[in-house]
Amino acid sequence: MVRPVNFGFNEQTSANNAFQQRGHESNAREGAIKEFDEFVQLLRSAGVEVFVIEDTPEPHTPDSIFPNNWFSAHEGGTLVLYPMFAPNRRLERKPAVLDFIRKNFLVKRVVDLTKFEEKSLFLEGTGSMIFDRDHNLVFACRSVRTDETVLEAFCDELDYDYFLFNASDSAGNPIYHTNVMMCIAGSFAVVCLDAVKDIDERQNLIALIEESDKEIIEISLEQMEKFAGNMLEVESKTAESILVMSKTAYNSLTQDQVDKIGQHCKIVAPNLTTIENNGGGSARCMMAELFLTPVK
After folding, report:
1. Distance of CA 79 to the CA centre of its chain
2. Domains defined for the chain, CATH in brackets
3. Distance from C-alpha of 125 to C-alpha of 172, rounded to nearest angstrom
4. 188-191/130-132 β-pairing
5. What is the pLDDT of residues 69-127, one digit of tens each?
6. How large is the greatest C-alpha to C-alpha distance in the chain, in angstroms?
7. Dihedral of the CA atoms 235, 239, 241, 242 (nearest 10)?
8. Model confidence over 176-209: pLDDT tens digits?
9. Residue 259, class by beta-carbon neighbours within 10 Å (0-12 exposed, 13-18 middle, 19+ buried)?
10. How far apart are CA 8 and CA 167, in angstroms?
11. pTM to 2 decimals?
12. Residue 130, SS3?
C-alpha cells in the first residue's frame, strides 16, 4: 500500500470516472492520510501483513494511493507494469516502489506493457482485470481504460484466458474499472449483474463463475455505485479468509448479503469516505497483492 503525500481530486481521471465527486476537495489530503493510516491499522489488527511505502512529493501523483492499477505481482516471480490512461498516473511508477519489491521479494521477470501508452491503448492492472487465479481466467469490462489488444498481450504473457464484456452504470455510462462492479473470491463472487445489459453476456458471465463452483452474491446498481463491488479477499497470517471493503460499501449491503459473505469469510470495513469521493476508488484499489516469494 502506498501512503499518500499529495492526495487530491484528479482532473485527468474525472472525465471517465463517474465515482469521483466534486465538492469534497477541502482537506482531502489530510483526510486521506488519516483514513489510510486507520485502514492499515485495521488490516494489521486483523492479522494481515501490510507493507507500506511512503509516496514522494515530486513528481505530483494525486492517485498514488491506488497502486493496484500500475503493477501486479504473480506467483512464480512475475511483475507486470501497465499502461495508464492519465499522464499523471504514469508518474506513479516510481523507483522507490519497484526497488522495495525487488529488495524484499524474488522477481524473476518483468512484463512491461507500458509501451502501449504510445498508441493510447490502456489496461489498468487489477482495476481493469478481475483474476480468478485458481483457473487462470480474467474478467474485464470494456472501457477507455481496458483495451482488448493489451488484454490479449497480458494473457499471452501469463497464460490466462479472458472474458471481455460490456458494463454500464445506472446513467448508461461505461464502467471505467471492472473492480467496481465485481469481486472474485475463493468460494464466492460478488457481482452487479444488472450492469451487464446484454443478456447473452450476462448469462456467459454467470456460467463462467458457476463453472468454478463459486456462489454468486448479487449486488444492485445502487449498491455498486456505493463501492459494494470494490472488495478484495485477503488472507491473514493465520490463514483466515477476510473480505475487505469500505464502510460505505458495507453500509449499502442488506443483512442477507452480509450473512452470505459471513459464511465464507470475515469482513473488514474501514471508513474511506474522503478517498472515495475524491479518488473515485475504494478499499480494493488501495491494495496491491504480492504473490511473490519473500527474499530470505
Report:
1. 16
2. 2-286 (3.75.10.10)
3. 24
4. unpaired
5. 999 999 999 999 999 999 989 999 998 899 999 999 999 999 999 999 999 999 999 99
6. 51
7. -50
8. 999 999 999 999 999 999 999 999 999 999 999 9
9. exposed
10. 27
11. 0.92
12. strand
C-alpha neighbours within 13 Å on the C-beta side of residue 91: 14
pLDDT (tens digit per residue) in 142-161: 999 999 999 999 999 999 99
Beta bridge pairs of residue 108: none
Cell of 105: 521479494
Question: For cell 492499515, what's the residue?
Answer: 40
Between CA 105 and CA 98 the distance in angstroms is 10
How far the first Cα of the chain sits from its last, in Å, is 21
Angle at CA 157, nearest 5°, toward 156 and 159? 65
The dihedrals phi and psi of 238, each to the nearest 5 degrees, come to -100, 15
The alpha helices in the chain, defined as continuous H runs, are 11-14, 28-45, 87-90, 95-104, 125-128, 148-158, 199-211, 221-224, 247-252, 255-262, 273-279
